[in-house]
Hints:
4 copies of one chain form a homotetramer. Chain A is of the alpha+beta class. Chain A has a single domain, classed as Hotdog Thioesterase (Thiol Ester Dehydrase, Chain A, Roll), CATH 3.10.129.10. Helices cover 19% and strands 33% of the residues of chain A. The first copy, chain A, contains 2 helices and 5 strands. Chain A has a 5-stranded antiparallel β-sheet with strand order 1-3-4-5-2. In chain A, α1 packs across α2 (133-140). Chain A binds chain B through residues 1-2, 4, 27-28, 30, 32-35, 37-38, 41, 56-57, 62, 64-72, 75, 92, 94-95, 97, 117, 119, 123, 126, and chain B through 1-2, 4, 27-28, 30, 32-35, 37-38, 41, 56-57, 62, 64-72, 75, 92, 94-95, 97, 117, 119, 123, 126. β2 (61-72) of chain C pairs antiparallel with β2 of chain D, so a sheet runs across the interface.
Amino acid sequence: MPHTSPENRKSYVKFVKIPTRWIDNDLYGHVNNTVFYSYFDTAINTYLIKFGNLNIHSGDIIGVCAESHCSYLKAVHFPQELEVGIRVNGLSEKSVRYELGLFNFNTSKAAAQGWFVHVFVNRRNMKPVKIPNKIKTALMKLEAPFNANQN
Amino acid sequence: MPHTSPENRKSYVKFVKIPTRWIDNDLYGHVNNTVFYSYFDTAINTYLIKFGNLNIHSGDIIGVCAESHCSYLKAVHFPQELEVGIRVNGLSEKSVRYELGLFNFNTSKAAAQGWFVHVFVNRRNMKPVKIPNKIKTALMKLEAPFNANQN
Amino acid sequence: MPHTSPENRKSYVKFVKIPTRWIDNDLYGHVNNTVFYSYFDTAINTYLIKFGNLNIHSGDIIGVCAESHCSYLKAVHFPQELEVGIRVNGLSEKSVRYELGLFNFNTSKAAAQGWFVHVFVNRRNMKPVKIPNKIKTALMKLEAPFNANQN
Amino acid sequence: MPHTSPENRKSYVKFVKIPTRWIDNDLYGHVNNTVFYSYFDTAINTYLIKFGNLNIHSGDIIGVCAESHCSYLKAVHFPQELEVGIRVNGLSEKSVRYELGLFNFNTSKAAAQGWFVHVFVNRRNMKPVKIPNKIKTALMKLEAPFNANQN
């Protein structure tokens, strides 16, 4: 049914290593579909903390997920070592759309690919706010060069 | 950014209760985005086991996730009692597309909605196969009446 | 190796229903050992919120886990409906020791049993504090009658 | 209440790196107590697969958890990089008792420590069997030198 073709590593800008865990495998012997999103989530937040100064514990402004999507192209398994590739495609004043690819260590074609929309909000009232400068700068560095995703 | 409007309970055909767990809440105090997919996954498999005779432990034919999507409209929290509404919209020979809505107990508007594509495969070789009759019959019962999703 | 004998339902004071989820099953087809603790955690916090007024979102005093233990006696599986039985055995000024049993719906012998120690702390500085009265009263109601655990 | 004193790195024989994930943090901002066990589980299985030839997908003999325990000494958080130290203390014909310590990268004192008992069973009938030689040899290499845990 889904005829998504796998993207290439080189269409992503940054990579975050994600070793699998025993519990990631479900009854069918593969990493469970829901766990892929926790890889994406981890990769995005790792990047924002490291390069955008995101303070998840006490910052006034946080990113909350408004939409997410994943196409599963090839099963992955514990104990494989995985990597998530990230790029930004859709940066606006208060939100950002990340595109993500999941790769087996040393393979060039994605085992899964998806997207994830963060809306930045005030932590107390959950109302959307402008993306802080430091984060915006970090996000701009993830913007894919023209045609990057035409592999 | 995402301007999805919440669907109504009555546009779904069956409901599965999902009590939340302490661990579902993440650092921001809401059920984490990845956990919504485990609610969908649980609702679908609960239905297939109960009404379609799906044998997850030793059946020859299993359903694997090819694609999934979720729009997050309203935060939910442990210890809320949730319900997942299911309908089928897109049933073909070897795959099915479910549409799902997540509801707080006693509310009529969805807190999140998404879709999920199952491809049925042979458990040994993971090759797509025709959906078994018993499962197909169960899936047909989930097909939304015409216009059901125009609430 | 472990020669723990299963306790009876009647040696627990309160019960919390825990439906299993698809993702709880691991590669071996049983609920994964780590997930049992999330059942215990959920049962304890559900009770404290409901009967002890615990405010997990903004209360000044929270309970943090200092120690936990589980003996696994019989495998459980999704889609079983489970129940956690709770009793208190060890209530002191700043901490409490819960004893927990996991039961299949309608069986009298525990499939797993364990304990869990909560230390109550100030949320900001994580320093131990006296258990608030309202919580203490709720915990006293969980104290097992004499010899309750000699089934 | 629990007066466990933290063990030193050097009382463990092997180490497995465990980067944290966003979802590991719970509402209180720390890695949730149940997640520690998934770190232990991952470390043990990673070692057995790598050094003991454990075939989790189709081997006849698997290790199932009979008992587990954890003492929580110091909170850990995403995005910290953690390591699990392992040693064996209690190797018998059909089962093994691992002792585990969780360490922050570059610290010498454990943030948590626990144990975990594996009983080796026949995958079909779940009856205990003798530990296969290759696994036994790997486990013997984890046995702590005399007094190793008197740090």
